Amino acid sequence: MVSESLLVLKVITPDGLVLQKTHLNAINIPLAEVSSIGVRPGHAPLIAETARGTVHYRDEASEDKITLHSGVLEIRNNIVTILTAGEVEKTSSEELESAEHKYERLMQTLVMSIDQETTKKDE
């Protein structure tokens, strides 16, 4: 049976879901304007800007990493979601420019969604 107390990591780009890892014990994510944040199961909800850099994640048996462009991090109910333009190593400059435009649209949609949710709660 899957333990609900472990973390799930999702990395989403304009092209869709590029990484989903479950059963994680810890995730370390570089943040903008500060060094990084360590996430363990039970972390408080958070929305923050990420910096370009390497995200480290580990489960019981191993540790792995992915290097991403800057983006937005959301932590909620042990689900860690990173919205980004893409992976650093796999992205050419031409692909990145196109992905950044898609990323901007994705971010605008996210902000509008959060604003609508906040407005509903205030009513």
Brief digest:
This protein has 123 residues and is α+β, with helices and mostly antiparallel strands. It contains one helix and nine strands; from the N terminus they run βββββββββα.
Name the features.
123 residues, alpha+beta, ATP Synthase, domain 1, 1 helix, 9 strands, globular
Which strand-content bin applies to the residues? 35-45%
Give the % helix: 10-25%
How many beta strands in the DSSP annotation? 9
The CATH H-level homologous superfamily: F0F1 ATP synthase delta/epsilon subunit, N-terminal
* Mean pLDDT across residues: 85
Q: Which SSEs are present, and which pair or pack?
A:
Elements: E1 7-13, E2 16-24, E3 26-30, E4 36-39, E5 46-50, E6 53-58, E7 63-68, E8 71-76, E9 79-84, H1 93-122
Parallel strand pairs: 1-9
Antiparallel strand pairs: 1-2, 3-4, 3-6, 5-8, 6-7, 8-9
Describe, in plain words, how this protein is organized in 3D:
This protein has 123 residues and is an alpha+beta fold. It has one domain: ATP Synthase, domain 1. It has 1 helix and 9 strands; from the N terminus they run βββββββββα. The strands form 2 sheets. Strands 2-1-9-8-5 form a 5-stranded mixed beta sheet. Strands 4-3-6-7 form a 4-stranded antiparallel beta sheet, with no helix packed on it. A hairpin with a 4-residue loop joins strand 6 and strand 7 (63-68).
